[in-house]
């Protein structure tokens, strides 16, 4: 266990390993520390709030637990614009892709939300694995056949036995007939995830005044939620 100047014991903020070593100093005199387990380099202390891994993680937890941008800003003592900058950064780092090469039952559903005002509806169309709940792919756009095709493109190369959807006509026109199962009772799992989205993300909650002002923030936060849900379900 490494003990730094301030007499604090240091562990890795990412993997919590105690196998950390000193790794030179910054120009400012702040100690660099490197985790031997996951290779993360971090600092003993940070001059800029959002550079600190722990702070960013805390902010992410708040955003994915129903707090809006202004809630986070007030509780964490930072500016709303700093929160927004972090959201963009999180969105860029979040990637959504199918982890396996083959799936038996895949459920597809769409969910609407809005940006700016209620007339500007945007649709999230996404696919999940029925058994694991993993979100395989997501597409944001209008509610039309083009969006379904865009989603399927993201699933290219993945072997899927059956697609389960509700009875929206566009699904029947795009999905291969022999693999398409229609009915509300086959999309229960994804309906549950729809509810999860609305509960976890403030900007998706019904009957609030919280909503995204710009598409980029809207998409970034949803992508982050999907990414985090896929990599560590317990976190969410
Ligand atoms: Zn580590």
How would you describe the overall organization of this protein?
- This protein is of the alpha+beta class and 236 residues long.
- It folds into 3 domains: 1-45; 49-93; 102-231, 2-Layer Sandwich (Nucleotidyltransferase, domain 5).
- The protein has 7 helices and 10 strands.
- The chain has helices at 53-63, 69-76, 80-93, 145-154, 169-174, 188-200, 215-231, and strands spanning 2-3, 9-10, 20-25, 31-35, 41-43, 102-114, 121-129, 135-141, 159-165, 180-182.
- The strands form 3 sheets. A 5-stranded mixed beta sheet has the order 8-7-6-9-10, sandwiched between helices. The protein has a 3-stranded antiparallel beta sheet with strand order 3-4-5, with no helix packed on it.
- The longest helix is centred in the C-terminal third of the chain and has 17 residues, at 215-231.
- The model has no long low-confidence stretch (mean pLDDT 91).
- It binds zinc ion.
- Residues 12, 14-15, 17, 35, 37-38, 40 line the site of zinc ion (ZN).
């Amino acid at each position: 266990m490494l003990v730094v100047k301030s007499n604090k014991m240091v562990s890795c903020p990412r993997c919590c390993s105690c196998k950390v070593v000193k790794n030179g100093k910054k120009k400012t005199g702040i100690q660099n520390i490197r985790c031997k387990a996951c290779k993360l380099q971090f600092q003993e202390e940070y001059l800029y709030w959002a550079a600190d891994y722990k702070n960013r993680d805390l902010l992410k937890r708040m955003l994915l637990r129903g707090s809006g941008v202004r809630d986070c800003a007030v509780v964490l003592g930072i500016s709303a614009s700093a929160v927004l900058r972090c959201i963009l950064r999180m969105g860029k780092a979040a990637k959504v892709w199918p982890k396996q090469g083959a799936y038996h039952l895949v459920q597809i559903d769409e969910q609407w939300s809005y940006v700016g005002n209620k007339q500007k509806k945007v649709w999230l169309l996404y696919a999940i694995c029925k058994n694991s709940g993993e979100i395989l792919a997501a597409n944001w756009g209008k509610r039309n056949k083009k969006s379904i095709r865009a989603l399927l493109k993201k699933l290219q190369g993945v072997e899927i036995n059956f697609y389960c959807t509700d009875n929206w006509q566009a699904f029947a026109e795009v999905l291969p007939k022999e693999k398409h199962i229609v009915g509300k009772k086959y999309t229960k799992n994804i309906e549950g995830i729809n509810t999860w989205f609305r509960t976890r993300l403030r900007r998706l909650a019904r009957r609030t005044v919280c909503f995204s002002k710009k598409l980029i923030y809207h998409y970034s936060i949803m992508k982050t939620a999907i990414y985090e849900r896929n990599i560590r379900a317990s976190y969410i």
